[in-house]
Amino acid sequence: MSLVSILLYSIVTLWLVITLLAQHTRFRPFSSIDAFHVIPRWTFFAPNPGIRDYHLVIRDRCRDGRTSGWKSVPIYSARPRFGYLWHPQKRSSKIMNDAIQSIKLLLKRENVGATGLPFTMPYLLLLYCAAHAVPPEPDAVEFQIAIIESTGHDKRRLECSFLSSFHRR
Amino acid sequence: MDITSCLVITKILLAAWSLLSAAEWLSNLHLFRANGLLSWKVLGLRPSLISSSVIRTYIHPESFIISVLLCRIVASVVLLVPYPNPADLPCSVFILLSCLYLSRRTRFGGDGSDQMGMVIAAGVTIMSAGLVFNDKDVALSGVLAIGGQATSAYFVAGAAKLASPVWREGNALLGVMKTQSYGHAFAVDFAETRPRFCQFVCWTTIVTEMLFPLVLFLPPGLAIAGLLCFAAFHFSNAYFMGLNAFVWSFLATYPSIMVLNAVIRDWM
User: Fold this and answer.
1) A36 pLDDT more than 80
2) DSSP B64
3) Could you tell me if A74 and A124 lie in one domain?
4) What integer is the mean pLDDT of A47-68?
5) How far is Cα A17 from Cα B149, in angstroms, rounded to an integer?
């Protein structure tokens, strides 16, 4: 057995061991040093199977203090007929889901919480996206975003899970 | 199955996944624009970025992303040239690098097929290097990387579901099928009035995923039959949940699993 193959076997074995350890929440610190995401997460649809859809909504506060109605930020598009072959639309909803899941985790973290959240990237990403995707009211000075979670198919149940502060337009 | 046949099948499936993934990202270029969901104006604020700001201004604009994706498409097409193909090694290296780049650039929006695609690209790179330098052990370490990660993927997915009450109670199937993102109207109509069917599907998924490592020890005929069942599982996920890219990347691991099966059975 050559030296190169011994080295490669060792690296591959180490990769497998770290991958298995990193699936447990206790070993999450691995992810903070994994800049290129080479340690995969294999817990597909578990333990939380993703039984909710997330929607981002935005409203404006005008100069006279009046607030506009909530407007939906268009993220989801219908799955194409041949979605089992070609489905690029899944990326937008996955990005949105990932960012919202990150926000929910950050809210639970003691060193972030509600006060630190506006300085985090997933929050800024949703804020920035909402502000640019929906045109402002003519005299809008501030805007606010909210995350709405929905469950169900025909009879959808809606629940607001996060409400931001007002930000300058 | 020998390592050469394993490489031939794996690289074709890797090329198929890589082409699909690159083409789907190309049709999502709006996400990378200044106002998009993956705008660098926001993602560039990450404190842990390792490259210098001068390099970042060159490697993160939309034009660079387009170049990477187009080069990846070319590399995938060249990978389809029948074996022996001297370009296998550089093409698989490029696909691997493009996976790492996209993962770093996007941060959000990657899924399990991207992770497995990266694993396959790494494995094919090592296998190609082993065959180029005529070192069977180097090639086998590539097989171990793919087969080992695939086995852990199925086992961990099953174990994580077992730990979840939503899965154990059988509510996960209907809950997921009711979503806009991964749902399917026909599946909801069928499953809504059949709670025992939902429970059966959930438990079948948990048990079969957790038993996946047994494929490595079964006689070849049974192992192939088992892998065909898992392939059917991925096709149904593509149809009902829209997880189209998983089919290519997970099927690409099966030749390596069959090689590992042969190696383990030889030892035994």
Assistant:
1) yes
2) H
3) yes
4) 93
5) 10
Does ipTM surpass 0.90 in this model? yes
Q: Closest chain A residue to B121 measured between Cα atoms?
A: A38
Closest CA–CA distance from residue B144 to any residue of chain A (Å): 7
Low-confidence residues of chain B: pLDDT under 70: 47-53
Greatest Cα pair distance, chain B, in angstroms, is 59
pLDDT at B24 (0 to 100): 97
pLDDT at residue A84 tops 90: yes
A24 and A88 housed in the same domain: no
pLDDT of residue B48: 61
- Identify the domain containing residue A100 by its residue range: 53-168
Residue B185 has a CB neighbour count (10 Å cut-off) of 11
Q: Are residues A28 and A83 in the same domain?
A: no
Residues of B with Cβ-Cβ distance to A87 under 8 angstroms: 24, 242, 244-245
Pair (A67, A137) in one structural domain: yes
Collect all residues of chain B within an 8 Å Cβ-Cβ radius of residue A85.
Answer: 238, 244
* Residue A38 located in a structural domain: no
Q: Are residues A97 and A20 in the same domain?
A: no
Strand pairing partners for A56? Answer: A147
As for how many domains chain A has, the answer is 2
Q: Could you tell me the two tokens for B146?
A: 């793919």
Q: pLDDT class for A31, splitting at 50, 70, 90?
A: low
In a domain, A44, yes or no: no
Residues in chain A closer than 8 A to B163 (CB atoms): 46-47
pLDDT score of A165: 94
How many cross-chain Cβ pairs, A to B, lie less than 8 Å apart?
206
Q: Which residue of B has its CA nearest to A129?
A: B37
CA quadruple B166, B172, B178, B180: dihedral positive or negative?
positive
Q: How far is A65 from chain B (nearest CA, A)?
A: 27
Residue of A nearest to B183 (CA): A153
Does residue A155 share a domain with residue A120?
Answer: yes
**Does residue A104 lie within any of the structural domains?**
yes
pLDDT digits (tens, 9 = 90+) for B169-210: 999 999 999 998 899 999 999 999 999 999 999 999 999 999
Based on the fold, state whether residues A116 and A163 are members of the same structural domain.
yes
| Nearest residue to A42 (alpha-carbon basis) of B249, B135, B133 | B249
Min Cα–Cα distance to chain B from A28, Å: 15
Residue A95 maps to a domain = yes
CA distances from residue A134 to A76, B28, B101, B241 in whole angstroms, order as listed? 14, 19, 30, 29
Residue A79 shares a structural domain with residue A157: yes
